[in-house]
Structures are given as C-alpha cells and as structure tokens.
Write a structure and sequence with these properties.
The chain is mainly α and 120 residues long. Helices cover 69% and strands 3% of the residues. The protein has 2 domains: 3-63, lambda repressor-like DNA-binding domains (434 Repressor (Amino-terminal Domain)); 71-119, no CATH class. A two-stranded antiparallel sheet has the order 1-2. β1 (88-89) and β2 (92-93) form a beta hairpin. The longest helix is centred in the C-terminal third of the chain and has 24 residues, at 96-119. The mean pLDDT is 82.
Length: 120
C-alpha cells in the first residue's frame, strides 16, 4: 500500500513544506514524519487527523480509500452542479429566490460541518 506515503509526499510538496516543517506543524520530529512518508511507520489516529487538517484533505483520501480530497468541496461541487441544472419539487420548478435561500442554508451547513471536523 504505497499510496499512503506517496499521497503524504505529494500533499507536503503541494503545500511547499519540507519534512521538517511538516513535522514541526504536527508536533513531531522530522524523522518521524519521514518514516510516515516512507511507510516505515504508520501514524497513530490522532496524528492522522492532524495530517488531514494540515493538508485540508480527508483521512480517507490520505489512506487511499477515495480519490476525493475533501468531502466538503465535493459535496459543494455536486450541489452547485445540481443547482445549475435546476431543482424541481413535485414536477414544478423551484423559484430562483427559494433556490438561493436553499443554497445559503446548504453553504452554512457545510461550513459548520467542516468546522466541527477541524475541531475534532
């Protein structure tokens, strides 16, 4: 399962971090972080969650369980795509002002869910 280490390295480089900087931000030594990228060691759950927050991706993405980096962004994309295509209720078009209200509510829910995830 080389995907874990490859994804860690790719994410670190995308964020312009050295192994030392990534380790410092996670509260670990450079050698510990390097052992995660080389897949010599696996991070404990709390560190995995920290890595997820640091890089702004889901734990599932880091572990290679999905190719969707961020579930919140994916959900927002899918909702906006559906929004552009038009929502219907009982075969009737939903008025534009109601669609905008729905969009605002969904955006707030998404942000609150993301905030809860980052705080956990």
């Amino acid at each position: 399962m080389r995907m874990f280490g490859e994804r860690l390295k790719k994410l670190r480089l995308e964020h312009g971090l050295t192994m030392e900087e990534a380790g410092r931000r996670l509260g670990i030594k450079k050698s510990t972080y390097a052992s995660y990228e080389s897949e010599y060691r696996q991070p404990p759950l709390e560190k995995l969650k920290g890595i997820s927050k640091l890089f702004g991706v889901s734990v599932d993405y880091i572990l290679g369980l999905t190719d969707e980096r961020n579930i919140q962004e994916t959900l927002q994309y899918k909702l906006m795509d559906a929004y552009k295509k038009g929502f219907h209720w009982d075969g009737q078009d939903i008025p534009e002002d109601v669609l905008q209200l729905i969009s605002q509510v969904l955006e707030e829910l998404s942000q609150k869910q993301w905030q809860r995830y980052k705080e956990s």
